[in-house]
Specification:
nucleotide binding; 5'-nucleotidase activity; 5'-Nucleotdase_C; 5_nucleotidase/apyrase; Purple Acid Phosphatase, chain A, domain 2; 6-stranded mixed sheet; 676 residues; 7-stranded mixed sheet; UDP-sugar diphosphatase activity
């Protein structure tokens, strides 16, 4: 069966409004028939009720500042109404790299975050709202598993996520960045103990003496839409997988909880298409509620009031029957804190939901716009104070920094950690060229630029996965109308996040042999899976290397484009050919590099240069900012402004290694630099 089948008519959810009309008609008919029809069986008594508040997909670029504050007010109100029997859950995609995400790296948020860092504002907002567990969504992994682990993990004054991320069909133990966060003993533990970056497949939340099981699950297509690193994904084969196999990968976690006597179980499922969650509802045994995610599906009941101009795609909740004859409900809300989902589940003594006792006047999707708050007797002034403090400071950073525009790019600027430490990328080229352009304003003879891939900390652009899609696409930055930023504009915020270290630039002089030695060092540990921060990104030169050769003998060809730099009168010079230095004796090149590398960072052998004439562009001890001339952030900003304005944006898309021209990996392509 395909992964995304149509829901069969037998299990299709029936709109409750239509059902109500049918029941009303039936009652009228009973009144006119003399009462011959038998009375309906009485509904079971409610043995336990549980209020579930839920969100998903804070990833679409909506007004996260206003919406997060408004949603916090609703969460506080509804939790106060049932303080002992409420859980607050997310079905994943709790953030997406972009202005809101990046703004938390600004020092102004130190009082709120302890230690600032991109994405920490998103996590802290959920901490302050009291989120208790989340599924792993695709955007949660967009910057790779190393970043994900560091973001949710506690470190110093940063407390990390105060809730666990859950996914039972992901194997975190096979990823070196996450394995230590996901010991098998985490499964089934109390969620409140799984804080500070802990991962598990399932957890327990104790509510008024009742143990509630919470299971997480992620789309099997994860590897095609985000950066999964070494995470194992079940079922394997992504698009070839079927719903039966997916259900089979989830059922053991449910069974484990049931074996402990837990009979109230919620599945947090981030499946991208709500049809998948619907299909799971008819295949899983023992699950009472599925909180869907990734599809941005708006579900409303008859008395819900959508935001202006928005309509629903189904009834809240969708109702199904499990293979064991158990009622199963599926709920979902739209993205970006636009709605808070609320459902109060009435359970009988056997732990089964009593559908006839669901209350549509309580359950549903609550809009977080001003009108939605007013209907609950609230305004944004009722926002949780901590949430408001974080959101407002993020708004101030965005207004100041995302509106400070440097230039534009019509393509995604690739700064993924795995890629910049393993191959040429277009962002590596761009920032190396920017450093060279700056250096030539100081010393026109500067001919070449060398930096390390580890100094590039993030991409510039947007990774988009449309709701319901099974593949994603990389493109230019998103527009931010409030800051005057158009799609493709590159802002101060973008540059600061990508070049977070803001290294100072240093000019040095190298011989031909020393240049080869520096590049040899950069590629000495290359393997197909290596992510050494020392891997070079270069400007003003091109080279090929053969990773099958011993370290120190890998550079086969090296060409300097213009040995005179910006000074007049030179043509490309072959420095290395066939692994041997062939440049004329006495050839020297002026190079711009990072002060970190010039000082021996990443093991680069600059200390052994024969006559370096090193000139640092930023004095030691100076606190560098975006405006600091001679540091790499300002170098990139000035280069974009001069060369790539909105009217002529940077347009060199990143290429696969087989198409790379500056750094030619001979295990993946032929040497395009070698002379016949």
């Amino acid at each position: 069966m395909p992964l995304f089948p149509r829901v069969s008519r037998a299990f299709a959810p029936r709109p409750r409004l239509a059902l109500g009309l049918i029941l009303a008609a039936g009652l009228a008919a009973c009144g006119g028939s003399g009462g011959d029809e038998p009375a309906a069986a009485p509904l079971p008594e409610v043995a336990f009720s549980l209020q579930v508040l839920h969100v998903a997909d804070m990833d679409s670029g909506g007004d996260l500042v206003a919406n997060s504050k408004a949603l916090s007010a609703l969460v506080n109100k509804f939790r106060a109404e049932q303080p002992a029997r409420t859980v607050f859950l997310s079905s994943g995609d709790n953030y997406i790299p972009g202005p809101f995400f990046n703004a938390a790296d600004d020092a102004s948020l130190t009082p709120e975050l302890g230690v600032t860092g991109a994405g920490r504002g998103d996590i802290e907002i959920l901490n302050l709202m009291g989120l208790q567990a989340s599924a792993v969504g695709n955007h949660d992994l967009d910057l790779g598993t190393n970043f994900f682990g560091a973001l949710i993990g506690a470190s110093g004054a940063w407390r990390g996520a105060r809730f666990p991320y859950l996914s039972t069909n992901l194997d975190f133990s096979t990823d070196s960045n996450l394995a230590s966060r996901a010991p098998a003993t985490n499964n089934g533990a109390e969620a409140s103990t799984l804080v500070g970056g802990r991962l598990a497949g399932h957890a327990v939340i104790t509510v008024d003496g009742q143990r509630i099981g919470v299971v997480g699950a992620s789309t099997p297509t994860l590897a095609s839409i985000t950066s999964t690193g070494g995470i194992g994904i079940r079922p394997s084969g992504a698009l070839a997988a079927d719903l039966d196999a997916l259900a089979a990968s989830i059922q053991p976690a449910v069974d484990s909880l049931r074996s402990q006597g837990i009979d109230k179980i919620v599945l947090l499922a981030h499946m991208q298409q709500i049809e998948v969650e619907q299909g799971l509802a008819t295949r899983l045994r023992g699950v009472d509620l599925i909180v869907a995610g990734g599809s941005n599906t708006r579900l409303f009941d008859a008395n819900d009031v959508p935001r202006s101009g928005e309509t629903g795609r189904g009834t809240y909740p969708l109702s199904f029957t499990s293979p064991a004859g158990e009622p199963v409900l599926v709920v979902n809300v739209d993205a970006d804190y636009k709605y808070l989902g609320r459902i109060v589940l009435p359970f009988d003594a056997q732990g089964r939901i009593i559908p006839g006792r669901l209350d549509s006047t309580v359950n549903g999707a609550y809009a977080t716009d001003a009108a939605g708050l007013a209907r609950q007797g609230l305004s944004v002034a009722n926002a949780q104070p901590g949430v408001a403090a974080v959101a407002d400071k993020i708004a101030a950073v965005i207004a100041a920094k995302d509106g400070a525009l440097a230039g534009a790019s019509s393509v995604y600027l690739e700064g993924d950690r795995v890629l910049v430490r393993n191959q040429e990328t277009n962002l590596g080229n761009l920032t190396a060229d920017a450093n060279l352009a700056y250096a030539q304003t100081v010393d026109a003879s500067t001919a070449i630029s060398l930096k390390n891939g580890g100094g590039i900390r993030s991409s510039i652009g947007a990774f988009d996965v449309a709701p319901g899609a099974t593949t994603g696409s990389r493109g230019p930055t998103r527009a931010n109308p409030a800051a005057g930023k158009l799609a493709g504009d590159v802002s101060q915020l973008d540059i600061e996040f990508a070049l977070r270290f803001n290294n100072g630039l240093s000019l040095v002089t190298v011989t031909a042999a020393e240049l080869k030695a520096l590049i040899e060092h950069g590629v000495s540990d290359w393997t197909p899976t290596s992510t050494q921060g020392k891997f070079p990104q270069v400007g003003g030169m091109r080279f090929s290397f053969d990773p099958s050769q011993p370290a120190g003998s890998r550079v086969r060809t090296l060409v300097v484009d213009d040995p005179n730099g910006a000074a007049a009168g030179a043509t490309p010079l072959t420095v290395v050919s066939g692994g041997v230095v062939v440049a004329p004796a006495g050839t020297r090149f002026r190079m711009v590099t990072l002060d970190f590398l010039a000082g021996g960072g990443d093991g680069y052998p600059f200390a052994g240069l024969s006559a370096p004439n090193r000139i640092d562009q930023v004095a030691a001890g100076v606190t560098k900012t975006y405006a600091t001339v001679g540091a790499e952030q300002q170098a990139l900003a000035a280069f974009l402004a001069a060369r790539f304005p909105r009217t002529a944006p940077f347009a060199a898309a990143d290429s696969a290694p087989a198409g790379d021209a500056r750094i030619q990996n001979l295990s993946l392509r032929s040497d395009g630099l070698a002379t016949p």
